[in-house]
Write a sequence for this structure.
């Protein structure tokens, strides 16, 4: 209880005192904060959706809402068939044991995938926290279920391997009585914000010092209800991570794609053309869910070629790629998830020079013989393609060649032969069919 009173007592002081630093608690000021460079350089991260919803493992991580909120017949019938009539959602928590959770093993896999940062769900819309939140008494992973600080344990393992660590946090909770009361008032009261949502965010920052704060659950109320700008001003001016932390754009209804650090805009969002603002695509290996599903089928997963193409296209358009996996209630990752992540890692081990720390080129893609996506780094242009030309000749129409132009293929020794197509464009003679990859990368030096 002392920890609870400490958080509740500290929060109003932090929230109400004048901000000390360059950023004021308004979007005009906050949106001017430069994004810390590490994030754009990282390019690829792993998202982990984990919580009590993994216990039923049915449908999606929105299980509780579909069962008790919308009364979806599929979920209602699932419960009638498999659980006693008086079974409540809270009764799932003791079964969330995470008995096979090995943070070191997870962190090894995420590192081997080529990811440079990891974002864990600290609390989804169900309200269960994966750390001992003092404002979520008996509905957290220390008081119930695993009886472990899952946020802290994974964070320690991730950071030991040189990766950045981020926290996903849902602002709202479907069935929290204080939130429902605020909602009933038309969000004229803020009891939930000041006693639950914001104390949790301050606690996460001061306790775990995250590199990413991935906010969610914002869409029902304005940022003024959530007190988001006040929190972000403290985060950027005074917090222990003020110089390194990055945030997304989900801080209130209407904020997405307009305000915040990097933009998510929407789940699985792709802009189609180069945006003017740093963005991130979050997507899931399981196409139907972010959380664990016990009834998951192989044909419902993204295959490795699709993931690599998605990653390349995202980076070419200036984005980061955050790929999600949903662990089981026991703390294991499906073998199919591991296979996908190791496949991405193997590809990045060979082609990562075209991905990490790269920038969008003056042209992002072309499609003459086969689709080609471009990136740029250190005066080098990288051309990435997913289909091997049948005649072993790749036409690149965009690069402007010079007498200093040379072409190599990542993972293949020696220079490649090429012929110009005037001042712009070249025909590249590819080596003997190099068909053991999901995508191939040409490195062009001396082109403009």
């Amino acid at each position: 209880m002392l920890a609870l009173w400490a958080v509740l007592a500290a929060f109003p002081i932090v929230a109400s005192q004048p901000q000390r630093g360059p950023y004021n608690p308004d979007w005009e000021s906050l949106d001017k904060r430069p994004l810390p460079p590490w994030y754009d350089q990282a390019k690829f991260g792993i998202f982990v959706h984990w919580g009590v919803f993994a216990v039923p493992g049915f449908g999606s991580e929105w299980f509780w809402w579909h069962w008790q909120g919308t009364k979806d017949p599929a979920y209602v019938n699932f419960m009638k068939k498999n659980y006693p009539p008086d079974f409540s959602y809270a009764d799932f928590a003791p079964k969330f044991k995470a008995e096979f959770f090995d943070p070191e093993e997870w962190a090894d896999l995420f590192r081997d995938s080529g990811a440079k940062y990891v974002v864990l769900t600290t609390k989804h819309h169900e309200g269960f926290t994966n750390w001992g939140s003092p404002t979520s008494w008996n509905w957290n992973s220390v008081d119930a279920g695993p009886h472990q600080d899952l946020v802290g344990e994974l964070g320690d393992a991730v950071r030991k391997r040189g990766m950045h660590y981020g926290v996903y946090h849902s602002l709202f909770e479907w069935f929290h009585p204080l939130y429902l009361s605020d909602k009933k008032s038309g969000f004229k009261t803020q009891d939930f914000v000041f006693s639950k949502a914001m104390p949790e965010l301050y606690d996460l920052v001061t306790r775990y010092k995250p590199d990413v704060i991935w906010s969610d659950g914002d869409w029902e109320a304005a940022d003024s209800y959530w007190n988001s700008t006040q929190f972000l001003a403290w985060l950027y001016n005074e917090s222990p991570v003020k110089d390194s932390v990055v945030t997304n754009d989900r801080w209130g209804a209407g904020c997405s794609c307009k305000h915040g650090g990097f933009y998510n805009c929407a789940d699985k969002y792709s802009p189609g053309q180069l945006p003017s603002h740093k963005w991130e695509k979050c997507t899931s290996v399981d196409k139907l869910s972010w959380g664990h599903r016990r009834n998951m089928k192989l044909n419902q997963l993204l295959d490795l070629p699709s993931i690599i193409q998605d990653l390349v296209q995202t980076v070419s358009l200036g984005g980061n790629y955050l790929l999600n996996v949903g662990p089981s209630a026991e703390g294991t990752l499906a073998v199919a998830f591991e296979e996908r992540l190791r496949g991405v890692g193997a590809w990045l081990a060979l082609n990562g020079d075209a991905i990490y720390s790269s920038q969008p080129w003056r042209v992002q893609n072309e499609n003459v013989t086969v689709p080609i996506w471009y990136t740029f780094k250190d005066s080098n242009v990288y051309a990435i393609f997913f289909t091997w030309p049948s005649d072993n000749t790749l036409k690149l129409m965009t690069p402007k060649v010079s007498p200093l132009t040379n072409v190599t293929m990542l993972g293949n020794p020696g220079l490649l032969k090429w012929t110009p197509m005037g001042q712009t464009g070249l025909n590249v003679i590819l080596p003997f069919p190099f068909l053991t990859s999901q995508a191939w990368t040409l490195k062009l030096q001396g082109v403009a």
Notes: The CA atoms of residues 257 and 265 lie 5 Å apart.
